[in-house]
């Protein structure tokens, strides 16, 4: 870790800490653009759930939170859906508020009942919520939003993700919510879930980004500036806490267990960013030492500050967008126009096994990332599958790959990533963009083995199945 001794943590933050806690992978929704492997089924043979309270009881977690020595703590709780645990979550929030040092921001879809939190000082619980049109109607979401606000919770941010299926709703929803006083913004969709390879941004999407996204966040998520080696204060006063009790200095350092090993020692100076790109959470990017695009002094970035920034920005837009925000959108536009070729996350090379170009118009493979053509999973799990699909006909490329599990369609992929080994195997440059991948939800299935089929469809409407795969449902 490179330390930047010339940038000691400012004195006003010596008694402050940020904690980011991914407490659960449970969720009652199944958004296609979700990057979290939500929906792990409870099963006696699975062992512990991917939930903090399955690893340690809530009382022990509250003891662990007492061990943070700082007196001013900004705690982000995210998932999955943290409010799903109606028994333990109210106890956790009540305990943290009684401690008096925590200001809490929870990421939530609002599908819960505020009556479960009667008796808690909800004004100290700030909700960062997103409307997911594929999972609930706007009238229902709106009803919950108002009910939860009326119950006393603070709504620090209300958003819509600009995924293809949300574009028709985004403008009207955001406009209405803003007119009702909610701090709103639109989040550009990140490559995740079903859209792992999607790079394109349609004109409609770009228009919505310009009008509804917060410029600094959009700049980081869309242009992904290189942060490696930059001096950054975030690790000097931040921890990352994991659902199994793991804890590390935020974004750097080895993980240890908070229950058995205690807390890691924070560096207390800015350090060199070890990552090519910052993950881009609002508080993280605002800790980069020299970030002229932000230009404000370092702060803990409590939820109220985040809300204030959004509200000020939205107000300033009404009198004309400010020059530095305009400049950020110009850089974003320039970046989107250049459309860089995405780099694949993983490459498995079965193409070399094929001699010559197969006669069927579409051909390809499902990757055997675990070395076997059977994968094990639980009913309704979310699994990742990748492969490549090509067309034997030059000028008739593959346009989509549809995935079926036991004849139920589970994904349709229209965006592809480069697979140079396919080019090498068939000596055809036009096959570079043949990789596909998706994180998708399995249907409800009984124990047993089921076929996974990938069907490739060419621009000319010809289709063919890739060599099949199987999933073994354990429970
Ligand atoms: S995006 Fe949020 S609400 Fe949707 S499935 Fe993921 S965690 Fe749940
Ligand atoms: S730039 Fe982002 S990833 Fe890098 S050290 Fe700072 S907060 Fe961490």
Quick description:
With 475 residues, this protein is of the alpha/beta class. Helices cover 24% and strands 26% of the residues.
What does this structure look like?
The chain is α/β, with parallel strands linked by helices. The protein folds into two domains: 3-338, TIM Barrel (Alpha-Beta Barrel), CATH 3.20.20; 351-473, Immunoglobulins (Immunoglobulin-like, Sandwich). The chain has helices spanning 52-55, 58-66, 88-99, 138-150, 167-179, 203-212, 215-223, 282-285, 303-318, 323-338, 420-426; strands at 3-8, 16-22, 72-78, 102-108, 125-131, 154-162, 184-188, 231-232, 238-242, 246-249, 256-257, 269-272, 362-366, 374-377, 382-391, 398-405, 408-413, 435-441, 448-458, 463-465, 469-473. The strands form four sheets. A nine-stranded mixed beta sheet has the order 7-6-5-4-3-2-9-10-11, sandwiched between helices. Strands 14, 16, 17, 19, 20 and 21 form a six-stranded mixed beta sheet that branches. Helix 7 (215-223) runs parallel beside helix 10. The radius of gyration is 24 Å and the shape is globular. Residues 343-349 have low confidence and may be disordered. Residues 27, 29-31, 34, 36, 38, 79-81, 109, 132 line the site of one iron/sulfur cluster.
